[in-house]
Amino acid sequence: MSGITDLETLLREMRPDLRAGEYVYCSVPADAPGWLSLKPLGFFREDEGLTLIVEKTQADKAGLSYGPVMRCITLTVHSALEAVGLTAAVAVALTRHGISANVVAAYHHDHIFVPADDAERALAALAEAAPVLT
User: Fold this and answer.
1) Which of 23, 63, 76, 134 lies 20 to 30 Å from 127 when distance is taken between CA atoms?
2) DSSP assignment letter at 4
3) 30 and 3 in a common domain
């Protein structure tokens, strides 16, 4: 099943959904043993090591340092990896409200990580902006 590429359709059909839980970004050495036991929501291999996106409780249990505490908003529309403009439109909507965002594109959906204190405002900004951005 292929995803949607049309930006107007993506914006009209995206249903921002605020996931439960708090997430943090951590960095561990690339050869760190046992990092999979942290059940990362996502990870990326960089030259400096592995960046993990994990639940805050998991990072605390493992004694990992991390930056800001984030919440995850999933855009429930099935966006194609080759779709053009969705990330930019989301960034514009959140920028208008002064909300930082880290976007992770997965196979079916885009996931927007925002500071935990801004999560509800981000959800509202995305919901109100979708029709305006089309």
Assistant:
1) 23
2) B
3) no
